[in-house]
């Protein structure tokens, strides 16, 4: 009866019934030093057994990481079975330079590009297209498709990109990127599942049928997150500050709180039908690993051994 069902629902641990049918992808940034490269490789090795759909490597402002992004993506493609995606932006690059970079990826066996407009290298400056370059991410998508049949992901903003004239104009822009040939959108991070669901509904109403994968940022440093959030238009809810209050000298406790918050967000997204999630790992594996574990994901090798 209904009362019994309600009691059982209240009794069940939050994550006990998740089927482990979520699929995940992980984002890394290119390492600057040998030590950071070690951290990155250890993160890739920790997360690889979870069988990500792909892992992606970001591209620094103004193309500042051009070589490092390429080297990292090419190494993942060469040394792991995971599909590797390279982020690429239009900033300070001519169409010829973009062509050269894209052809280099294709030759290295990289088939997936995360195509972005990018932000100017000087913080807060306005984006001015390169005179011979692409003016927007939609233009870049069309340009890349003309070079090779890449799989392409683009950015989406559940809380609207800060430069957009309106939420609707931003949604129209997302549709242009998908109509230009992108296969999916990956969202900027957000902390309100409702903000994502409302965006998903508005996208569906605008005729967008491609998948919109929520981007999950596990937060263990609120001050740093506030800085990112201010640049990209994401809201930091007041409860986030309260949850981290007094934990400055407790790094381990901060990690536990971070995992709990992100896992709760992922659990709510899952309950709302989301089955694909993209993690901004910040090159640290444990938080994303713990959250994936709570979502029911297990290392694929272990599963194969159990079945045997
Ligand atoms: P666009 O889709 O071109 O949109 C930029 C702005 O212009 C929006 O406000 C849009 O609404 C508006 N616009 C575009 N075309 C039109 C038009 N025709 N008419 C009116 N308005 C228009 N940055 C990096 O530098 N490196 C990275 O590796 C990187 N990775 C990212 C990954 C993800 C998943 C996300 C969500 C963001 C990433 N970014 C990265 C940040 C991104 O570069 C910035 O948010 C940038 O400001 C916008 O890029 P975009 O691709 O969304 O641009």
Strand and helix map with partners:
Blueprint: H1 2-11, E1 23-28, H2 34-47, E2 55-57, H3 66-79, E3 84-89, H4 95-107, E4 112-116, H5 137-147, E5 151-156, H6 167-179, E6 184-189, H7 193-205, E7 211-216, H8 222-232, H9 238-244, H10 251-271, E8 276-280, H11 285-294, H12 300-307
Helix pairs in contact: 2-11, 5-6, 10-11
The structure holds flavin-adenine dinucleotide.
What share of the residues lie within helices? Answer: 40-55%
Q: State the distance separating the first and last CA atoms.
A: 40 Å
Question: Count the helices. How many?
Answer: 12
Low-pLDDT stretches = none
Biggest β-sheet: strands ordered side by side in the sheet: 1-2-3-4-5-6-7-8
Biggest pleated sheet = 8 strands, parallel, barrel
Report Rg.
20 Å
**From the helix content, strand content and strand pairing, which structural class follows?**
alpha/beta
* Total strands: 8
Give the SSE string. HEHEHEHEHEHEHEHHHEHH
Average of pLDDT: 92
Strand content: 5-15%
Characterize the overall form: globular
Write out the distinct hetero groups bound to the structure: flavin-adenine dinucleotide
GO cellular component, one term: cytosol
Family: Belongs to the methylenetetrahydrofolate reductase family.
Pathway: One-carbon metabolism; tetrahydrofolate interconversion; Amino-acid biosynthesis; L-methionine biosynthesis via de novo pathway
Pfam families: MTHFR (PF02219)
């Amino acid at each position: 009866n209904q009362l019994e069902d309600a009691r059982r629902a209240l009794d069940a641990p939050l994550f006990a019934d998740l089927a482990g049918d979520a699929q995940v992808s992980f984002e890394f940034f290119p390492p600057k030093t040998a030590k950071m490269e070690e951290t990155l490789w250890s993160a890739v090795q920790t997360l690889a057994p979870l069988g990500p759909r792909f892992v992606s490597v970001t591209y620094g402002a103004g193309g500042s990481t051009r070589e490092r992004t390429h080297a990292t993506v090419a190494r993942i493609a060469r040394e792991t079975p995971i599909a590797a995606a390279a982020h690429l932006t239009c900033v300070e690059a001519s169409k010829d330079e973009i062509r050269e970079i894209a052809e280099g990826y294709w030759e290295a066996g990289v088939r997936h590009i995360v195509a972005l407009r990018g932000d100017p290298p000087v913080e807060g400056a306005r984006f001015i297209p390169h005179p011979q370059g692409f003016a927007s991410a939609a233009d870049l998508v069309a340009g890349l498709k003309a070079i090779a049949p890449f799989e392409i992901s683009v950015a989406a903003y559940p809380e609207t990109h800060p430069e957009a004239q309106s939420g609707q104009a931003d949604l129209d822009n997302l549709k242009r990127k998908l109509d230009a040939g992108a296969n999916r959108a990956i969202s900027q991070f957000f902390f309100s599942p409702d903000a994502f669901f409302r965006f998903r509904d508005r996208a569906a109403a605008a005729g967008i049928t491609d998948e919109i994968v929520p981007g999950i940022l596990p937060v263990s440093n609120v001050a740093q997150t506030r800085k990112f959030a201010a640049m990209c238009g994401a809201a930091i809810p007041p409860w986030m500050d309260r949850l981290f209050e007094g934990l400055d000298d407790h790094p381990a406790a901060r990690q536990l709180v971070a995992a709990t918050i992100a896992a709760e967000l992922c659990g709510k997204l899952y309950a709302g039908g989301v089955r694909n999630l993209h993690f901004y790992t910040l090159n640290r594996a444990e938080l994303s690993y713990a959250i994936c574990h709570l979502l029911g994901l297990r290392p694929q090798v272990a599963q194969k051994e159990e079945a045997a």
